[in-house]
DNA sequence: CTTCATTCATAAGCCCAGCATATCAATACC
DNA sequence: GGTATTGATATGCTGGGCTTATGAATGAAG
């Protein structure tokens, strides 16, 4: 004999407590009256106390029954609320989404996409964390991040990536530099110039692609300085320490003393959306689905 | 197919969520593993979302599952607490007890009994309400009172009464009254004196017994004034408006200008405990049981 | 008072939800 | 590649919960 209380007992009890009438309560519950009496009796045995005072003409609640009616009502309501919330989380309409991004991605359409996501899913808490690409890869792998917007993040083992944007490179020059006079450069114009780049450890593929851009043009850049972020890097360029190559979107960041010039090259930098492979989060799925309609068509070949 | 969630589902779910292991959870629940898998699957179908991510090597919670684990834990704990509280109310250890009393009863041992009851059942809220006997009878009948301490409340239809105290009468006299010189009176000493009494509507039996006390002594008292309560009545006596008879306990109330004198009479006034007949309240039962040990032996013949 | 209606309890049997047993499939580990 | 582990699937059984039928008690009506 199962001694545990079940929600069924509470539902049945409340039906009787509401109507104070076994027969009507049974009809409402769509069961036969004896079945209802049986379950109420079981509940009373389980509690060790009577919940109703039966007269052959109707029933009424005992003090214990009155209290249980109060409590049972809130319990059932709470359970329903809980299930509804679990379903919302299941649908990805509620919860917490950890999103990492490389700093440069904030100069693309991502901020607008985030705004739309927040509007569509107001109950989702977005935790935005700026991280280097390689740090995001690690965080995605151990589950600290749900989603990452990586600068050149393709081809990482264990991550499912999708390329969102494909950008040209621009040359970053001191405004007094001789090459700044030209509107458009060839990459090999930069041959022999001192280069400032971010560290390879922050994003190997981004680094390699920048180098490859130069190598395509027939030279290997001489790197004289490393910088942790593009804004810092651009300030160093403005100070005349060297030149650089950066994804085109970064041209939106105006730094006094630094200018951007288009370069003719087939080399491209990408922004890639990454999530843990085989690890489905409805929240992340919803974010990705929204991005697909917003940014998907904005790839620049 | 029953589509309703039951506490069993939550219990099973939590077992798996705790151990993240179906087989071990099943052992802990003392059921077979397939039965557990079946119930979890049912719960997931009911929610429309997965709660666990199954790998052939262990399981882990989805975001929805994590949330449900939180909620289910509090739900089960709450239900247990609720049942415990209902049991306490069932045992009469908790709840609200409405106790009515005639004013004169507060001059007996009742206050001491109330103090003991409060100490023994600290979670019981005692609502004490001073009411005339007849008002108590009405309130008891319609359930507004759980228990009543009635002055001469025997023999009321629909109420179960038990006599707690049986008291002599005392004469109440102005201190300058000639009879005040005697230590003890005969009732018929009061023959011809103007009487002050409470209204018969407040307590018919108390009234009748007072009158009967006089009639036993061979006269019918001439009532010149009615008073709603004993303290008021005694003040009127002190003012020289008349004399009165009162239950002996009221002698504890000292009113300047009024004195009490024993009377030789077999007439008695009673304090009766009353509750609705056939209406068992564990709270009231506990109160009565406590009184039985405290006051039961204090009857004055 | 008798009769009828109402209402909850009891009795008896049925049926399916939940369970157990047996087995399979997939993966980690040596 | 073999073995162990773990959850899923298949199949049949069993008891708890249900239904139907009936009883008992009480109030209402005439």
From TrEMBL, chains A, B:
Keyword field contains Transcription: yes
Name of the protein this chain belongs to: Transcriptional regulator, LysR family
MF GO annotations: DNA binding; DNA-binding transcription factor activity
InterPro entries per UniProt: LysR_HTH_N (IPR000847), LysR_subst-bd (IPR005119), WH-like_DNA-bd_sf (IPR036388), WH_DNA-bd_sf (IPR036390)
GO cellular component, one term: protein-DNA complex
Coiled coil regions, renumbered to chain: none
Family membership: Belongs to the LysR transcriptional regulatory family.
UniProt keyword list: DNA-binding, Transcription, Transcription regulation
Residue span, HTH lysR-type domain: 5-62
Organism listed in the record: Bryocella elongata
């Amino acid at each position: 004999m199962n001694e545990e209380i079940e929600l069924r007992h509470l539902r049945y009890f409340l039906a009787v407590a509401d109507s104070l009438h076994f027969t009507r309560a049974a009809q409402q519950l769509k069961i036969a009256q004896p079945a209802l009496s049986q379950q109420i009796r079981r509940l009373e045995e389980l509690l060790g106390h009577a919940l109703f005072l039966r007269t052959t003409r109707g029933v009424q609640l005992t003090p214990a029954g009155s209290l249980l009616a109060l409590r049972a009502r809130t319990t059932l309501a709470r359970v329903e609320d809980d299930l509804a919330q679990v379903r919302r989380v299941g649908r990805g309409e509620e919860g917490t989404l950890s999103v990492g991004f490389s700093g440069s991605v904030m100069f693309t359409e991502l901020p607008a996409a985030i705004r739309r996501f927040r509007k569509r899913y107001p109950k989702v808490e977005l935790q935005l964390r700026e991280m280097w690409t390689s740090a995001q890869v690690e965080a995605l792998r151990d589950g600290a991040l749900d989603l990452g917007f990586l600068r050149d993040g393709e081809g990482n083992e264990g991550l499912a990536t999708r390329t969102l944007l494909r950008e040209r490179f621009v040359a970053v020059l001191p405004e007094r530099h001789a090459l700044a006079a030209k509107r458009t450069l060839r990459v090999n114009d930069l041959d022999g110039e001192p280069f400032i780049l971010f560290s390879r450890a922050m994003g190997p593929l981004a680094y390699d692609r920048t180098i490859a851009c130069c190598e395509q043009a027939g030279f290997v850049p001489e790197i004289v300085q490393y910088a942790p972020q593009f804004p810092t890097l651009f300030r160093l360029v403005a100070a005349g320490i060297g030149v650089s190559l950066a994804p085109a979107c970064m041209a939106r960041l105006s730094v006094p003393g630094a200018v951007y010039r288009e370069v003719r090259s087939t080399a491209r930098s990408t922004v890639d959306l990454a999530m843990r492979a085989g690890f489905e989060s409805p929240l992340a799925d919803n974010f990705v689905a929204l991005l697909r309609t917003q940014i998907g068509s904005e790839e620049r070949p």
